[in-house]
Design brief:
The protein contains seven helices and 27 strands. It is of the alpha/beta class and 379 residues long.
Length: 379
């Protein structure tokens, strides 16, 4: 297409999609804008689902985002089912289609499952969070399979609800995401709250009526009334099969989020260039930064600035709050800028590439200060 687009379609109504919509308007797009979302809900904050919505006194408004100002037409609860690149059309599950001059793919991802059983719960969307909160209200026994950030946040919410919790993790919880030092702090806090942690290899899941059973790699059997799995996500790209745009289950974009002429991909579906290679980084902050850059690129092409991704991550579990700027996991012991090994602390790690990482643990440090600490990590 030559010239500026007159109609842009965004597939995905999560934070990546709505940020792209806002970014397009800010970049001067005044044409027809349509957002297609497979969920019936308006856009919401996904990180709140495993934090504030599972808290003992849940903040039922924590997931809400400000009312949109992008003026887009929203088609909600209707998934995209196909893409015709030559015809510039997105097919929808209700049999309709949307034409476009430019397209933003922000279709997100879904929870990876261990089984097809309805007794296996996952936490990906708002409805999942509501269902889980209702199920744990009576304090049942809970098995959480997966020791990543989401699994540990779920385990924390279940403990706070009075549940007896077992976490089955492939390796020590959070080590792959945070590194040994920080993971050890969270694991110790989990055990202090009564969480039983099982370090296991591959597991199989069985159900005896409504009761879940997990068979670990050493043949040990772990049972509970509720099973929740948190074993990763799967990008929603099947609807694009046959287009030639999908590479190893994701959409590999350039440094501006472009997948091809007049097509951008952002958020959980996108693998983009980083200082550690082309990677998919399915985090809230990553989706926002990608979407901002891609929106400008759709309007300005190669004149748009490339993505300069500054990793940011945060988690809350077992009474701890962690905020990190810089690459994770971190290796070795930290340098303490504030605090120490016991209690709140602001830490930094130097790195060979001169970037460094800064981490605030259970300590309300403004993000600009965290970034300054990271910048001086190798000083």
């Amino acid at each position: 297409m030559s010239g500026h687009p007159e109609k842009i379609v965004i597939v995905g109504n999560g934070v990546a999609g709505v940020t792209a919509a806002d970014g397009l308007r800010a970049a001067g797009f005044d044409g027809e804008l349509t957002i297609i979302g497979d969920e019936r809900h308006a856009a919401y904050s996904r990180p709140a689902l495993s934090k504030a919505l599972l808290a003992p006194a849940p903040d039922l408004d924590a997931h809400r985002l400000p009312a949109p100002t992008h003026g887009a037409t929203e088609i909600l609860g209707v998934p995209a089912t196909g893409l015709d690149i030559a015809g510039r059309r997105v097919s929808l599950a209700d049999g309709s289609a949307q034409s476009y001059d430019a397209l933003v793919v922000a279709a997100g991802s879904r929870a990876r499952r261990l089984t097809e059983s309805p007794h296996e719960l996952t936490l990906r969307g708002f409805d999942d969070a509501v269902a889980l909160r209702e199920r744990i209200a009576g304090g049942p026994s809970v098995l959480v399979v997966g020791g990543g950030p989401l699994g540990m946040e779920i385990a924390s919410g279940c403990v706070n609800a009075g549940c007896t919790v077992t976490v089955v993790s492939q390796g020590a919880p959070l080590v792959e995401q945070l590194g040994t030092h920080l993971a050890g702090v969270f694991t110790a806090a989990a055990r202090e709250r009564g969480v039983r942690i099982v370090d296991s290899g591959a597991v199989s899941v069985e159900h005896d009526g409504d009761r879940a059973r997990v068979v670990a790699g050493d043949s040990a059997v772990h049972e509970a009334e509720i099973l929740v799995s948190a074993v990763g996500d799967i990008p929603n790209v099947e609807w694009m099969s046959g287009t030639g745009l999908v590479t190893r289950g994701a959409l590999h974009v350039d440094e501006r989020g472009m997948l091809g002429p007049d097509i951008a991909a952002v958020g959980d579906v996108a693998a983009f260039p980083t200082n550690r290679g082309v990677r998919r980084i399915p985090l809230w902050s990553s989706a926002i930064e990608q979407a901002k850059v891609a929106a400008v690129a759709l309007m300005r092409g190669a004149a748009a600035p490339p993505l300069a991704f500054d990793p940011y991550f945060w988690t809350e579990a077992f009474g701890l709050t962690l905020k990190a700027v810089g690459d994770l996991p971190v290796a070795g012991d930290p340098e303490y800028v504030d605090g120490g090994p016991v209690g709140p602390a602001l830490m930094r790690w130097a790195s060979g590439d001169g970037a460094g990482s800064a981490v605030a643990l259970d300590y309300r440090i403004p993000i600009p200060r965290l970034r300054r600490v990271r910048a001086t990590a190798d000083a």
